[in-house]
Amino acid sequence: MGAAVVLLSGGMDSTVLLGHLLRGGTDCRTLSIDYGQRHVRELDAARLIAAHYGVEHRVADLSSLKPLLAGSALTSDDVPLPHGHYAEESMKATVVPNRNMLMLAIAGAWAISVKADWIAYAAHAGDHAIYPDCRPEFMSAFERALYLADWHKVRLVAPFTDFTKASIALMGVRLGVPLHLTYSCYAGREEHCGKCGTCTERREAFALAQVIDPSTYEA
Amino acid sequence: MGAAVVLLSGGMDSTVLLGHLLRGGTDCRTLSIDYGQRHVRELDAARLIAAHYGVEHRVADLSSLKPLLAGSALTSDDVPLPHGHYAEESMKATVVPNRNMLMLAIAGAWAISVKADWIAYAAHAGDHAIYPDCRPEFMSAFERALYLADWHKVRLVAPFTDFTKASIALMGVRLGVPLHLTYSCYAGREEHCGKCGTCTERREAFALAQVIDPSTYEA
Question: Rounded to whole angstroms, how far apart are CA atoms A135 and A131?
């Protein structure tokens, strides 16, 4: 119920969140962010997913901010992309400075503009180790700032903060979410590389949930 | 001391803040935001002010977000610009959805990227009545979110939150700040209109501070 602006990356987590909210009757608009990421391919996935559900989809273009967001493997060609698990120290190279606050602030702006009730965000427990801005403490502080930012009150919905990615995969299958349309590889080629942080987590999540992984991997 | 990213609109308040921080020996970078405002003229003023002080200046281009920020007289040509004091109800038409959080989030991103200690923002007491996102409660909540957003800790410096604009004008004169270069009119023409909200506040501030107003007004 109510109206929400859903941050839709084109990956599995945000797509399952969208499916979950729509199943509950929430009026959803979807927002993707072009922050100059290598894997701009995920924006095409987001478009297809929004079209699948017949919901409004906008892409906020922050690519001009790229010079201010230097130092991350996701935005700088001269920083190599690490492989392996999120929990590893090397994965910190994929942190984009203040990325989540930026994305949430834009979602908040749109929500205030259209008088939506919530912004919805699919951060989950597996993100916490390396991304401080995916943690519940950050989410609470951000929600308070957003609540105080305008006369129109917008809340933050982040129901997956204590979920594992395997639970999200399972939920996606149960809800009939079009997981075959999702894309999340940091390398950004046509198919998932199978080796980067998100690919490693994604493969493992499907395996742990004991459901079929609809993704095609290079390796 | 230390390093700061200073949000520089090109108006009087942020210019005095820059002068104040430089006088104290802070290493300052300056950031202006193009959010599709009518008064894009202020960005030229910001460039001249940064050049005057010999500090780095960047403009973050958010003009592509304009469709998401609908409904404000500052970004929509079909919403008329109100005249008079900030305290008046009509002035709420100049609120741009979540504008300050967006600007602060970008400043925070750049600060994290270059490992600066602070972001500095010149909100003052006269803004509180109509702009919730200029109030101390919002600033505190935002600062906490920013502090939690990354491994590198950035604080928010907003020393003018309890200052009147007249105090800022007086401080600017005492510090030898180039107030003649500042521009803040919402109408966005070459000279200050003299009638919009910021012009009304600006004229009054110089009069109350009993210092010379270096601005040229149309009316």
Answer: 7
